[in-house]
Amino acid sequence: MIEKFTRWDSADFLLTDADLKDYLEACMDEAGEDDRFIVKAHETIERARLEIMGNYAERGL
Q1: For the chain, what is the HEC assignment?
Q2: In the chain, where are the structural domains located?
Q3: Is pLDDT at 1 greater than 90 in this prediction?
């Protein structure tokens, strides 16, 4: 049996400003002293923001 895998992107599930805030807080709690972890969290948040803004533009908001 062949297993199928899909790529996970947290940005797909960050839909509101509250989601973004909670995600960043959770990442900061987990990161400890790992600055790279925080950088990746900010990159994910930026992708989510661009997606949110794109959705608003498509709806004429």
Answers
A1: CCCCCCCCCHHHHCCCHHHHHHHHHHHHHHHCCCHHHHHHHHHHHHHHHHHHHHHHHHCCC
A2: 10-58
A3: no
